[in-house]
Amino acid sequence: MADDDGYGFHLGHDDDDAVEPSAYAPEGEDDADGLDERTMNLDEGFEPTTSAVMMLKRAWVLERLCPEMRAYAASTFEDVRTRTDARVEQLERRARERAESGGGGAEEESEKLMDHLMWIEVNRVRYIMREYLRTRLHKIETHALHVLTDADTFAKLSEAEQKFAEGYIEALQGHFEDVLKDLPEGYRDMMVEYSGEADEEATAQKMIPKPNLDAFVIFRMREDVPNFVQPNGETIELERGQVMLAQYSRFRDLLAFDPPKAELV
């Protein structure tokens, strides 16, 4: 029997055959509801794609695989956190009530088992939340100067992440001041290769690590995109379910749609 876990999907399936998405059925065969496999979402056989947890999971995976910073998924993250906090409060209250009642019947044992399963799910969701934030903090640390000096990238951060980036740079500057003070005067700026050069601004840009937008990533198309125009002006036909290894910069525009027309895998 499937039990609602409070996150918009079920802990189990009434039918084991439902675990496998119909999108992976043999080509040309329709699913049980009479829908062609190409009209089905690639993941909906596993978990509803509109659930807050699935949306946060997708944001985490995309953040991990994307060379550049993605916009902070504020509404999704807060929705998941609110639901998780409410479920934790409910589980803790039920545990207190069982302890106060001093029961031990079959019904209480069944409830304890279900609560244990709920705690497993809560911990899974908490892991996704932590890893999403840790992934973003790691990217901020890796390209801290770029994040702080590029207005578009800085705007993608949450308020807490913006404060973290500013504090990280302050600490980094303090460290470099202690390290670089013994070097010749022209080499004491952590952002400029040599302060005696004519074009210090251009040199400073060279010293700021930036994301490699030409890095190769794996795209999977979520829908058909006819006549997609690449940055070089060439047109290409993209089909749903198509997987391709390509430079991120060539197809990054596909991720800008809501919902995105492609995903990184």
UniProtKB/TrEMBL annotation:
Keyword Repressor assigned: no
Cross-referenced InterPro entries: GINS_A (IPR021151), GINS_bundle-like_dom_sf (IPR036224), GINS_Sld5 (IPR008591), SLD5_C (IPR031633), Sld5_GINS_A (IPR038749)
Organism: Ostreococcus tauri
Entry protein name: DNA replication complex GINS protein SLD5
Entries under PANTHER family matching the protein: DNA REPLICATION COMPLEX GINS PROTEIN SLD5, SLD5 PROTEIN
Domain DNA replication complex GINS protein SLD5 C-terminal: 211-255
KW DNA repair (keyword) present: no
Family of the protein in this entry: Belongs to the GINS4/SLD5 family.
Record-annotated GINS subunit domain positions: 116-178
